[in-house]
Amino acid sequence: MAKMTIADLQQMKRAGKKIAAAVVYEYQMAKICEKAGADLLSVGDSLGRNFLGHRNSEDFKIDEMIPFAKAVVRAAERAVVNVDMPTGTCAAGHAEIVWAARRVREETGADMTKIDIRGEEENLFDSVREVIGTGFPVYPQIGFEHIAGGELHGSPADHDHILKWAHALEDAGACMIDLTMVTHEIYADVCRSLKIPVIGGQAGPEADGRIYVSYSLVGYQAATLDRAGQASAAQFIYDIAKKGIDAVHAGKW
Predict the structure, then answer these.
(1) Pairing relationship of beta strands 19-23 and 40-43 according to DSSP bridges
(2) Is residue 16 over pLDDT 90?
(3) Residues 25/68, Cβ–Cβ less than 8 Å
């Protein structure tokens, strides 16, 4: 199984092939998603909330991210691996971001890191540029934060804002972009105007690919238990676990 590179993802865009990406947090899900055909495995900073139970995203720091990132890198035989810069690290400022990026590169062996600059473009752009200057590829996240109801941003001002920063990041050497919470029209314009791939969690086929949070996609969350009409790996696991536990309680295992 030949290992893919960032250059391969960029070539997929030029060839009109869509990039399938999956957010994963650990070895087994990384293996499953890669076997399913994912081209990019992304260790998301949502790990802090979804897997470690942090109530505040800024409590999740690079020290906790590193072991999970190493596990995903060990799992990947073919897919490119990204490691997100934790929200708490981004909030700590320029020096912390550059230091943490060096740790990700040296300690995990990941192919690239994602730095979320949404709403902080002016403050964090230089951090992105400096990390790129060290030789470590950066996959910046731009767009808007998720809001209640999932409303997408699509005003003329939003359009101009996104295009401005997308082009600035490409010119700075970003290897691809994660664009979030914008309309399909903005996705289409950004993808047409950039040479590097642009993917996102709300993107349609007009984008260069789509990223799924694998645990949400398959319903591997306790919140999906007993939720009718929704795929639920959690329900499948619960049913098997409960059968075994009930058998022990009944003395019939």
Answers:
(1) parallel
(2) yes
(3) yes
Alpha-helical regions (H) of the chain: 6-14, 27-35, 47-50, 62-75, 87-91, 94-108, 121-133, 156-172, 184-193, 214-218, 233-249
To 10 degrees, the CA torsion angle through 113, 140, 123, 121? -170
| Contacts for 185 with CB less than 8 Å, ≥ 6 apart | 154, 159
CA distance 228 to 231: 9
pLDDT number for residue 148: 63
Contact 99, 86 (CB under 8 A): no
Tell me the H-state helices in 42-120.
47-50, 62-75, 87-91, 94-108
Compute the distance between CA of residue 75 and CA of residue 72 in angstroms, rounded to an integer: 5
Tokens linked to 73? 């890198």
Six-digit token pair at 156?
């003329």
Q: What is the DSSP string of 216-248?
A: HHHT-SGGGTT-TTS--HHHHHHHHHHHHHHHH
Tell me: the pLDDT tens digits for 198-240?
999 999 999 999 999 999 999 998 888 877 777 789 988 999 9
Could you report how far apart the first and last alpha carbons of the chain are, in Å?
A: 42
Closest among 20, 13, 10 to 200, alpha carbons compared: 20
Cα–Cα dist 132/140, whole Å: 11
Distance CA 17, CA 32 (A): 22
- Quick one: DSSP state of residue 56? S
